[in-house]
Task: structure prediction
Amino acid sequence: MTAWSIESINWSRFDKNLVDPVLVRLVKAAALVEYNGATYTDYLCNVFAGDADFQAKAKVWGREEVQHGQALAEWAKLADPDFDFQHAFDRFTSGYSVPVDVEASVRGSRSGELIARCMVETGTSSFYTAMSKASKEPVLAEIAHLIAADEFRHYKLFYDTLKSYLLKEQIGRLGRAKAAVSRIRELADDELAYAYYASNVPESVPYDRTACSNAYLGRIYPHYDPEIIRRSNAMILKAVGLTPHGRLNSMLTAGAYRFVSYRAHQLAEAA
Result:
């Protein structure tokens, strides 16, 4: 269980003068996605029916995700008193839904589902690490740091569970890599884009997934440094059964950093 709570955050340190409007937009969108964690808990409990131990852990994970959303929402309301979190969340859930009523993973196997979850936790851990480094406002930096640590621990939960399921399902590296790549390619899917739309764009403006996705990524990509990318690659490689540190990681990090830098510049120009 996470060692922090919303009450343990020193909100009195909040400094309005140090708020970055760019990060405010990201925080608003992230708050919606995190707060929706309870829905994913239901999904995971259905997928892992019969595994009471993992279901119990998934419920704890879900409560921690919801707390992430609550903390981010509280900060967003301090940064922008006009932000109506509940209204934004209602907009988000009315336009984006997770297929909860399932009997099996959409990834084809429980191992595939766990690999996908590892990819999500890799992405969120990197995202909040970047946000923590980028924020000059002390309370946001603290919240983002706490969430990044939680997400890294969540990765370990899913990875440790994955190891036990691989013994039963015997999925090779190729199958694991396919599951990982499939989830990574969904980075620009409707969830993040619609969360950005619901929290930042007036309802009178029609939803444009590409525009919202680009706006979201264009605001966080500039804050990704080689160390964040290297750590992210290590987590990905470990989940697919490859050596996390070494030449392959170095090559991937160099390539990924060039791509992220290029996309950040490209999206900034488009904006």
Remarks:
- Residues 61 and 154 are 7 Å apart (CA to CA).
- The chain has one domain: 18-270.
- The two ends are 41 Å apart (CA to CA).
